[in-house]
Amino acid sequence: MKIKSAEIVISAVKREQYPEEIPEIALCGRSNVGKSSVINMLVNMKKLARTSSSPGKTQTLNFYNINKQFHIVDLPGYGYARASKTNKEQWGKMIETYLTNRPNLLEILQLIDIRHKPSEQDKLMYEWVKSIGFKNIVIVTKLDKITRSQRQKHLNMIRNELKMGDNLLIPISSESREGKEALWEIISNIFKVNGHDFEGENNKK
Questions:
Q1: C-alpha angle 146/74/183, rounded to 5°?
Q2: What is the DSSP track for 63-97?
Q3: What are 178-181's contacts with CB under 8 Å, separation 24+?
């Protein structure tokens, strides 16, 4: 997909702050899994989404407007051990409110770090997202952090731990950009099957 513009619209904490209802794709995952880096890679910008070496930095719903056509939404990271119980409860409610009350949300992409076995929170999120009607496509991040010979073993481990069956699993690296085109193809197909052919619209202009 050709990126003409990308900007953050709002960092929301409650429903009344959500921006206009245009098609949306949401990213969820553990703290420090690389959601911000994936967003920056997709839109060819280094600092649109702020990255941090400190996990738990994203504590709001961050809405990014792409090409003035759709949103990519970065959800607060879960599983941050040092966060207080109160903060964890607030983030959980924030995520649940968004995922169950946003009619223009087309799909959720769950990010998993290829280096680690999916945590119990990863498994719970995967099952919960499926239970509310989404396919929950899994994006495996940090592909560059392991050797090529280890890749298939780790991908199989993630698929088995999450009991994914034949569901989509896309390995990517924000550093090398490997997998970027495959991820955009998945996102474009999500829009198309929901009646939004943004690439076709761009070609007509």
A1: 50
A2: EEEETTTEEEEEPPPB--TTS-HHHHHHHHHHHHH
A3: 178/143, 178/144, 179/143, 180/41, 180/42
| Full-model pTM | 0.89
Break the chain into its structural domains and give their ranges.
6-194
Residue 119, Cβ neighbours under 10 Å: how many?
15
Q: How many Å apart are CA 42 and CA 3, to the nearest integer?
A: 9
CB 184 within 8 A of CB 137: no
Strand positions, DSSP E, the chain: 6-12, 24-29, 61-66, 70-74, 105-113, 137-141, 169-171
Q: Which CATH class is domain 6-194?
A: alpha beta
Structure token digits, residue 100: 């169950």
Report which secondary-structure segment, H or E, holds 155: helix 148-162
Order across the sheet with 6-12: list the strands.
6-12, 61-66, 70-74, 24-29, 105-113, 137-141, 169-171
Per-residue pLDDT tens for 117-172?
A: 999 999 999 999 999 999 889 999 999 999 999 999 999 999 999 999 889 999 99
Measured between alpha carbons, how far apart are the two ends of the chain, in Å? 14
- Percent of the chain clearing pLDDT 70 (strictly above): 87
Contact 187, 108 (CB under 8 A): no
Amino acid (1-letter code) at residue 42: L
